[in-house]
Amino acid sequence: MKIETIGVVGAGTMGSGIAQTAIVAGLRVVLVDVSETTLATSVASLNARLERMVQKGRLDGPSCAAAVQRLVASTDYRSLAGADVVIEAATEHAAVKVAILREIESTVAPHAIIATNTSSISITSLAAALERPDRFVGIHFFNPVPVLPLVEVIPGLQSSSETVDSALQWARQIGKSPIVVSNSPGFVVNRLLIPMLNEAFFILAEGVATAEEIDAGMRLGAGHEIGPLALADLIGLDVCLSIMDVLQKDLGDPKFRASPLLRELVAAGRLGRKKGRGVFQYNG
Ligand SMILES: NC(=O)c1ccc[n+]([C@@H]2O[C@H](COP(=O)([O-])OP(=O)(O)OC[C@H]3O[C@@H](n4cnc5c(N)ncnc54)[C@H](O)[C@@H]3O)[C@@H](O)[C@H]2O)c1
C-alpha cells in the first residue's frame, strides 16, 4: 500500500507529535481538532520544535520549510478525505473515540486504514463500532513521539493481516520500530509502566520521600532517564488515571487501584506539564 497522506485527529500532546514526525519523514498530514485554539497552539508549538531541530543541526532549513508546507490544520473532518491512514489521538474516553472513528470512517476512502492511539481501550471493542472493522488497528506511539522510537501495533480480533502490514509499513516509513502486541489492557509498555508511576503517588502520599527524592531515586538508582513523577506530569495525570482505571476494570485485579492522590490532583485540574502544574510546577 502506498502511504502518502496521513490524517491525525486530536491535536494535543500526541497528535502534534505524530504530525511532526510524519511531516519530517516526508508525508503530507491533515491535523484535525474540534478546537480552533488547540489547533493554533498545536501548530505553533510544532513549528517551534522544528525550529529548535534546525538550531541544533538535526534538520536543515529547506527541509524544515518543506515539512511545514506538508501540514494542513483543520476543524473539518471532510479534509481527511484523501488520507491513506487516519490515526485518532483524541481524549482517552471510549464514547468520544467511537464518535470520532465513525466520523472518520464516513469520510475516508474504502482503502484507508483507520487507527487509534489509545493507551488502554480495547481495539476489538472500538473496531466493533465500525462498518469496516477489518481496516482498523491500534497504533500506539510513545511520548514524546519525535524522540521515542517504539510503536506498539495492536491488531483487534477483526483486523485483517493487510491492515496490520500497512500499520507496520507506516510506522517504519516514519522511522519508528514497531512491535506487534496482542489486544490486552495497557498492551505491554503501559501495563508495566503506569502501575509503577501510580506506586510513586502512593509513596509520595505516605510521606516515604519527597517528590524530588522519589524521582532522584529512580534516576540514580534504577538508571531511568526521568523520574516517575516527572514522567507522569509529562504523560498527563488524567491520562495516567484513566489507564489505571481501565487496567483495574478490565483485568479485574485490585493491584491496579489508582492512587487517591493521583485522583485528587486530576480532580483539581493539576494535569501535569500541559496545564503548567501537576506534581511539579512548570513555568513557561
Ligand atoms: N500523553 C501520552 O503520553 C500518551 C502516550 C500514548 C498514547 N496516548 C493516548 O493518545 C491519546 C491522546 O492523548 P494526549 O495526551 O495527546 O491528549 P490531549 O489531552 O493532549 O489531547 C487530546 C486532544 O483531542 C481533542 N479532541 C477531543 N475531542 C475531539 C473530537 N471529537 N475531535 C477532534 N479532536 C478532539 C482535544 O481538543 C485535544 O486537543 C489518548 O488516547 C491517550 O491515551 C497518550
UniProtKB/TrEMBL annotation:
<feature type="site" description="Important for catalytic activity">
    <location>
        <position position="140"/>
    </location>
</feature>
<dbReference type="GO" id="GO:0006631">
    <property type="term" value="P:fatty acid metabolic process"/>
</dbReference>
<feature type="binding site">
    <location>
        <position position="274"/>
    </location>
    <ligand>
        <name>NAD(+)</name>
    </ligand>
</feature>
<feature type="domain" description="3-hydroxyacyl-CoA dehydrogenase C-terminal">
    <location>
        <begin position="186"/>
        <end position="282"/>
    </location>
</feature>
<feature type="binding site">
    <location>
        <begin position="10"/>
        <end position="15"/>
    </location>
    <ligand>
        <name>NAD(+)</name>
    </ligand>
</feature>
<dbReference type="Pfam" id="PF02737">
    <property type="entry name" value="3HCDH_N"/>
</dbReference>
<dbReference type="InterPro" id="IPR006176">
    <property type="entry name" value="3-OHacyl-CoA_DH_NAD-bd"/>
</dbReference>
<keyword id="KW-0520">NAD</keyword>
<dbReference type="GO" id="GO:0016616">
    <property type="term" value="F:oxidoreductase activity, acting on the CH-OH group of donors, NAD or NADP as acceptor"/>
</dbReference>
<dbReference type="InterPro" id="IPR013328">
    <property type="entry name" value="6PGD_dom2"/>
</dbReference>
<comment type="similarity">
    <text>Belongs to the 3-hydroxyacyl-CoA dehydrogenase family.</text>
</comment>
<dbReference type="InterPro" id="IPR008927">
    <property type="entry name" value="6-PGluconate_DH-like_C_sf"/>
</dbReference>
<keyword id="KW-0560">Oxidoreductase</keyword>
<feature type="binding site">
    <location>
        <position position="33"/>
    </location>
    <ligand>
        <name>NAD(+)</name>
    </ligand>
</feature>
<dbReference type="InterPro" id="IPR006180">
    <property type="entry name" value="3-OHacyl-CoA_DH_CS"/>
</dbReference>
<dbReference type="InterPro" id="IPR006108">
    <property type="entry name" value="3HC_DH_C"/>
</dbReference>
<dbReference type="InterPro" id="IPR036291">
    <property type="entry name" value="NAD(P)-bd_dom_sf"/>
</dbReference>
<feature type="binding site">
    <location>
        <position position="92"/>
    </location>
    <ligand>
        <name>NAD(+)</name>
    </ligand>
</feature>
<feature type="domain" description="3-hydroxyacyl-CoA dehydrogenase NAD binding">
    <location>
        <begin position="5"/>
        <end position="183"/>
    </location>
</feature>
<dbReference type="GO" id="GO:0070403">
    <property type="term" value="F:NAD+ binding"/>
</dbReference>
<feature type="binding site">
    <location>
        <position position="119"/>
    </location>
    <ligand>
        <name>NAD(+)</name>
    </ligand>
</feature>
<feature type="binding site">
    <location>
        <position position="97"/>
    </location>
    <ligand>
        <name>NAD(+)</name>
    </ligand>
</feature>
<feature type="binding site">
    <location>
        <position position="143"/>
    </location>
    <ligand>
        <name>NAD(+)</name>
    </ligand>
</feature>
<protein>
    <submittedName>
        <fullName>3-hydroxybutyryl-CoA dehydrogenase</fullName>
    </submittedName>
</protein>
<dbReference type="Pfam" id="PF00725">
    <property type="entry name" value="3HCDH"/>
</dbReference>
<dbReference type="InterPro" id="IPR022694">
    <property type="entry name" value="3-OHacyl-CoA_DH"/>
</dbReference>
